[in-house]
């Protein structure tokens, strides 16, 4: 007999029509799946009652695949075929990976994304992630008793298009319909119901197993806008374990340990850390493989001293994020704690002291992202009434395209809410131009060379027309997951070209913040650079037009002296174009315009004469 | 004429209601759809209709409309776990036949 859940008033589904939707927190260290049942967001457990699924995938010799705790247990014995922290490789090229020496995998540089060689063949990070997602989907379908309608999957706020697309691809491979990708900090805020609360700025402090992320969100009119993100991709709860581990080594004066003892003591260290979250002291006893007995005593105060530098390390990125967002501490309305490591009392205390207010901690910090994603999934699947506001995300960096002179024309400004579509008209630069190259870029700077190239494509078969006559409408469309598609269409002929942007390389979070920062810092020089390029493009266009005109009529309409005078001005402008003084170029353009006034007037007369030549006045419609 | 909840079901409903932050009780009902005629519905209640009948069981207000009541009178609502799944179950003495999935029934 099927088990029923309580629905919202009037929202009862017909039998077999339940819209089962889940939220998935696809984490670097651990992943979770949650759903809303009887109006309440809950994390789904596996058969053994575990909520967390370690994000570890192991390829076995017999072709089987292990995911989760089973795979994690074999990590040190079979490192090359046991993939951990695959999220770090999503949408990344080999060059993007720092510290390759410390990663035990056999990487293969493939176009677009790095691949990992395992005994089961070459696997892309997308395939590995799909295994984790598949395990979560099976768990959810068992727990909910039916097929999933869809899922909301969370990604870090700093994930770029490539990383988001890779996540979506992994879900598709796992047989999951992605309702939407949601930023992790936004999901945490939703779990706390902040989206229904008062408008303001919120901090999401996320200290996970191996990564630290701090995000600053602004809620206005039901939309969360990411003001800034910062973090440390090599700082997490595991570092606290390692600090205790080192302390044990020092105190017990142990020689370098074998792998088995290292694992034993690291596990011990983790237990000690968790114990000290609730207690004041702990007795550490362990028997090593050679029979040595360790017996040590550690107090909570000592532990705080041992790890205070790690806590301080999280506050630096926090300060930077505050500075990037241009905020002071008084602007902060609330602080949300995410990640298991934020259970440690001295972390909560440090955060509370820094922000001058108690952080929100009443939800389980390991589960809060998944819980928020589930709430969003429930709304998107249509299990709530329509008056519930749909939460929207914004695009992190402006999207635009390259125009003549290497300038960026922004089509969608950053922080536009998703989904969004914007169109802009462009035209041809030269007479008879039949193709146009469209270069899509992302970033805040004025010059293409300072932005990130996302994609290039060509619009061909434009009917030949005079320069500036063609009307090419370029439409940028970003869907609810932040994925971009660009369409170019010549309006008179209807020729069209289209591209879905799957950029080949990822942006690191540093690059994103760096790009934003430099756009502010370089505002003035960018303005000058833009002025220079614009004057150069103007000058070039003028020179080409005059050259064409001289070829056509220069010998019939001008005396040799007049022609020489014009050519001299052209020569002067030609020299100036290559230099970087926009004022000088503008002056030379004016001079050349002035010098060709007579020529232009004579050409006009000549063409009027030609048009009227041999025609009866009556046949002209005036 | 009565509808009852088991103690487990009642405590669950209370938890869900308090988590939801609003609502005065639980509505049980039947809809004439499904593979064998009737289907149960289970919803939170924000507003009462004039014809609604109300019962009280373990401190939870249970609301039923009179048309549904004739099909589910005497029902005990339970909350159970089956493997990883958990949810509410209608123990309805009027049922003659259920479809395989148990989501709909005939009397």
UniProtKB/TrEMBL annotation, chain B:
Cited Pfam families: Fe-S_biosyn
UniProt GO molecular function: 2 iron, 2 sulfur cluster binding; metal ion binding
- Which residue numbers delimit the Core domain? 1-103
One GO BP annotation is: iron-sulfur cluster assembly
Any coiled-coil regions, as ranges: none
Q: Which domain of life is it from?
A: Bacteria
Q: Which UniProt keywords apply?
A: Iron, Metal-binding
What cofactor does its activity depend on?
Answer: Fe cation
Bilayer-spanning residue ranges: none
InterPro entries per the UniProt record, alphabetical: ATAP, ATAP_core_dom, Fe-S_cluster_asmbl/transfer, FeS_cluster_insertion_CS, HesB-like_dom_sf, IscA_proteobact
| One Gene Ontology cellular component | cytosol
Q: State the family named in the UniProt similarity comment for this chain.
A: Belongs to the HesB/IscA family.
The record, for PANTHER family, names: IRON-SULFUR CLUSTER ASSEMBLY 1 HOMOLOG, MITOCHONDRIAL (PTHR10072:SF41), IRON-SULFUR CLUSTER ASSEMBLY PROTEIN (PTHR10072)
For this entry, the protein name equals: Iron-binding protein IscA
